[in-house]
């Protein structure tokens, strides 16, 4: 029977185990999107994961969602990431950059840019903007058809920069209510051109973004994350099984490195997507933010259902040695939520230690 501790071949990488560190916003970058030395320490501490997927990184300035998140759209940001990826590799790890375009989940007080989206439909929830606190979300500007094609290329450009920065690959963030998910979803995409309307139209942006990134750096270096039926940031989706089956079938011929899916819908649907996907299938058993993060038993269950790799988010915050704790049955620590997003601080970021026997 497949174990979390078995090795796995992912593209040109050999993963020593099947445990993936999921992407998590930690908000420790500088105001101009530069990761600091502490980011290298943070990720290197967790390099025993089979694969690390970084926090969401904005592929363009207009794509920035949260304050103090890092970018990959300037030469200076690329240079700042190189010591981080080098630290992971020196510690024997592998790391993909998650490319996260916020779309309508953005505010001019954060990025200095007015957010864009498939349609001019604002979030009902307020957005955290930094020193000014929570403010109402603005109505985003709807992208023209030509501009949509430009946003597709943003992902390709950021993928090239990621490889230049030393990342082993990239993950496109198509989940949790951000730009790709906004195109997929029936309530945030009211377009009548080729990028809206039918299921075929609504999946087009995701497929084209994945294709562009794959053309830029090679398909075996590109993954995509999805949250079928998820509701983060006011998302609503109709006909989830039909919609996501069509998306997975359209993505399959590209030969991507992996499909990374959150448990945000019925298990039968996720198993059907596994059967429709020919490549590596990553499951995040914790789903959306909930009172309890995914655990080892859930991960082992999903391996029996056909998943190849299991990703864990919050469990990795307080347990940099999560693989060893799972392997030996050691107790897990719980992180203080007040330190999840502490801008720039070390507390709750690099201060969690491996288990002391």
Automatic annotation (TrEMBL):
Residues 4-333 form the NADH:flavin oxidoreductase/NADH oxidase N-terminal domain. InterPro entries: Aldolase_TIM, OxRdtase_FMN_N, Oye-like. It holds the Pfam family Oxidored_FMN. Signal peptide: none annotated. Gene3D superfamilies: Aldolase class I (3.20.20.70). PANTHER family: NADH OXIDOREDUCTASE-RELATED, NADPH DEHYDROGENASE 2-RELATED. This is Alkene reductase. It comes from Streptomyces lasiicapitis.
């Amino acid at each position: 029977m497949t174990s979390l501790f078995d090795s796995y071949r992912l593209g040109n990488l050999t993963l020593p185990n099947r445990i993936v560190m999921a992407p998590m916003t930690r908000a420790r970058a500088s105001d101009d999107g530069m990761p600091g030395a502490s980011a290298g320490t943070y990720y290197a501490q967790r390099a025993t994961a089979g694969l690390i997927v970084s926090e969401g990184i904005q592929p363009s300035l207009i794509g920035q969602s949260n304050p103090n998140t890092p970018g990959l759209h300037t030469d200076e940001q690329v240079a700042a990431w190189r010591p981080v990826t080098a630290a992971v590799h020196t510690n024997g790890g592998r790391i993909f950059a998650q490319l996260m375009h916020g779309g309508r989940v953005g505010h001019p007080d954060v990025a200095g840019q007015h957010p864009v989206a498939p349609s001019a439909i604002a979030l009902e929830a307020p957005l955290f903007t930094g020193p000014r606190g929570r403010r109402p979300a603005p109505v985003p500007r709807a992208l023209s058809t030509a501009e949509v094609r430009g946003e597709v290329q943003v992902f390709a450009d950021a993928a090239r920069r990621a490889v230049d920065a030393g990342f082993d690959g990239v993950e496109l963030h198509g989940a949790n209510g951000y730009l790709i998910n906004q195109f997929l979803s029936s309530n945030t995409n009211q377009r009548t051109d080729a990028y809206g309307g039918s299921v075929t139209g609504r999946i087009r942006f995701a497929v084209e973004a994945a294709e562009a990134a794959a053309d830029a750096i090679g398909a075996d270096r590109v993954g995509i994350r999805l949250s079928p039926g998820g509701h983060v940031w006011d998302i609503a989706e109709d006909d989830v099984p039909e919609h996501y089956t069509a998306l997975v079938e359209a993505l399959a011929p590209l030969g991507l490195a992996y499909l990374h899916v959150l448990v945000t819908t019925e298990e039968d649907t996720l198993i059907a997507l596994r059967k429709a996907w020919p490549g590596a299938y990553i499951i995040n058993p914790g789903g959306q933010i909930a009172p309890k993060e995914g655990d080892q038993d859930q991960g082992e269950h999903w391996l029996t259902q056909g998943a190849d790799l299991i990703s864990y988010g919050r469990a990795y915050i307080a347990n940099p040695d999560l693989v060893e704790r799972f392997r030996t049955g050691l107790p897990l620590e719980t992180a203080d939520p007040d330190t999840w997003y502490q801008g720039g601080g070390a507390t709750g970021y690099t201060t969690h230690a491996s288990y002391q026997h």
